[in-house]
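The record is given unchanged here:
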Amino acid sequence: MNKPLADRFRPQTLDDIVGQRHLLGENKPLRRIIESGSIPNLIFYGPSGVGKTTLATYIANKTNKTLRKLNGTTASTADIKEIVSQLGTFAGINGILLYLDEIQYFNKKQQQTLLEYIENGSITLIASTTENPYFYVYNAILSRSTVFEFKSVERDEVEKAVYRAARLLEEEQDIQIDLPEACARKIAAGCGGDVRKAMNALELSVIAAERDGDRRIVTEDIVNGLVQRSAMRYDREGDEHYDILSAYQKSMRGSDANAALHYLGRLLEAGDLPGACRRLMVCVCEDVGLAYPQAIAIVKSCVDIAQAVGLPEARIPLADAVILVANAPKSNSGEQAIDRALADIRRGNSGPIPRQLQNKHYDGEDNPNKGQFYRYPHDYPNHYIPQQYLPDSIKDSVYYHYGDNKNEQAFQAYWNKIKHGDA
């Protein structure tokens, strides 16, 4: 079986590697480490298809070490022991470079099995993970490794790689490939920064292309059929999930309706209607709050409609709600107030509830000062009467501070007049 184009499209130099200029550009630390030939234990962190395996293979070839590959989803402790058994033999005469893909799937015991060998240098570990290694990789491995973060490849870089791969296919198959710029751009845009996906799409496009003798004519119709939608990176259990949700809420909080709609679109395109709705309701309460409290009811109604009609129609009420939240005045005074109250409680600042607030209408014989002493505010002018509500030990605590928006300033002016007689 022929290898996929992505596996045949391997770089000969560091400059041939697509993207990752922040790591592999001139005088960048990782490039200098590789060029020195003295390779430490490395952890490559980033999304799939961005060159982690490619770079590990390149490093192994340049260091003359024996390359062994394991995948954390399928490998066992026995597989590690089999690699260890090669140490000191002809197979591992120059040392072994172990490329461990998806290390996050190795349990603690499996990772510990490697410790002795990566510490004494008999095995050089290059591990890759699509998840944050500081959460998923055993601390002892982390402390003996250097972490480098790989990023999604920019569309322009992917497009250049598509043209280079097309030339490789021409040489392999002794054919001429007509690849219009619009088709290359569509393939690059549709891979979501994943070079491997772009290579697969190109290879399939050439296979499906119209034939004219030794020519293969790739058309937009063919490419559109193979790249039907933007291949966004989205994993509901991974970092990308939380990155999109975070960007979604921060864009609404930052009053950027265009950015908020973009991230809403990414959530809906991935089918994450619950995530879009939940974060929207959190945002309207947390970030709009008392500056425009009516927005809370409006957003809840939009969310109810979205959940009732489902996708794709759900996009309409959600877009309305997102635009409303982004453009509404902002106040987080409510959130700050409850957080101050909770912090006080967690520090142990509480105390007995004042007698007049207790749900008690009978005093025992042991109480010399009988009576509820609660004054009903509605019996007094302006429905207000001063009395103590907080426990004695924190009776002067202030948790809520009025925001500077028109709505809360009106509240403050009203109550200053009632409570303090301010004009």
